[in-house]
Amino acid sequence: MNALENPKLAIVNLGCSKNQVEAERMAASFQSAGCDYHPDTLSCDIVLINTCGFIGPAREESVETILSYLEMKKERPGMKVIVAGCLFERYKGELSSELPEVDGWLALPTPQNVKEMVQNLGFRPAAPEGKPTYGRPVLLNEPGVAYLKISEGCDRPCSFCAIPAIKGAMRSRPLDEILREVEELTQRQGVQEINIVAQDPVTYGKDRGMADGLLSLLQGLAATPGDCWFRLLYLYPFGLKEQHLRVLSDNPRFCPYIDMPLQHVSGEILRRMKRPGNSQAYLDQLSRFRSSWPGVTLRTTFLVGHPGEEDSHFEELCQFVRQARFQWLGVFPFSREEGTPSAEQDGLLDEQLCLDRRPDWIVVVGDVNSTAAAAM
């Protein structure tokens, strides 16, 4: 049987928006290796599963997804299954030995090793001559919207988080490279909204010796040609300074939106998490945001059930939410992640108790959203 030219590639992306950016870049590498991107996994030749390994439920979803496509492969012997992403980065040896049916594993995809993989899978690349690209000709989001990752890794010591172990230390992209990508997305691909993402955007450029990398980034984004708007996501508490807020509030190209995961508000639990702040400090900060940036929408996430969290800590969290009046709020139960300090702390809560605390938030969030909506 002759090797197939221009095999159809489908991507199943799991996890966060940062993972989506990597999936889009992988799609570009596969295209440069002679593959045609195809959104339908049922009629493709190669399925690339971009996994997430951040917390327990994400790992379960990733493994279940891999197994479901390996079952599909039994019905379609010519189909190839490739696995990439955080789950493989975290558990390389275990996964590859437990799932030998997977046709290929990609830890650090590059145009060159992707091309070699496509050839090793029995396909004949028919890409145009020239240097392989690692851009993003394929966007997996709805039309007009894109995510732009400005750095990789994280230097924060949050005790519950496995990201530094998976992704390593923070590595900022060069500012001129980011601004060129903005122009590429807007001028060539018609993107109208760009969401800025990273594990820790507020310390952008610190590893490059920039005095205030976030300020330089914001000023650079505001000066790019076109009329697209920008949204900042996943900002670490107390990272936004007055000079940042002035640029954001003075320029209509920045969406009046702050996504700042606080994780908790009890000073005692935050110290266990190795994070700053307390209830009053966060209320003061939110008040500052609203006065400096009128009309700003505030979103956050909280982690319930961290080791040591007692009923009084949880009630403090609920009371804070009633006072803070977030427009959007996500809540996650604690996941005991091996290799993290929180996994070894005393005061570990029963898993069911962690889960039981989450439904209470559905009522609280509904009340808060209704109040916020009525006040807008």
Q: From the alpha carbons, calculate the radius of gyration and give it in angstroms.
A: 22 Å
State the major sheet: 6 strands, parallel
Distance between the amino and carboxyl termini? 65 Å
β-strand number = 15
Strand order of the largest sheet: 8-11-12-13-14-15
**SSE series:** EEHEEHEHHEHEEEHEHEHEHEHHEHEH
Low-confidence stretches: 129-134, 360-376
Give the helix level as a range of percent. Answer: 40-55%
Structural class: alpha/beta
Bin the strand percentage. 15-25%
Mean pLDDT: 89
How many distinct helices? 13
Shape: globular
Commentary on this structure:
The chain is an alpha/beta fold and 376 residues long. The strands form 4 sheets. Strands 8-11-12-13-14-15 form a 6-stranded parallel beta sheet. A 5-stranded parallel beta sheet has the order 3-2-4-5-6, with helices on both faces. The model is unreliable at 129-134 and 360-376 (pLDDT under 50). The longest helix is centred in the last third of the chain and has 25 residues, at 351-375. The protein contains 13 helices and 15 strands. The protein is 42% helix and 17% strand.
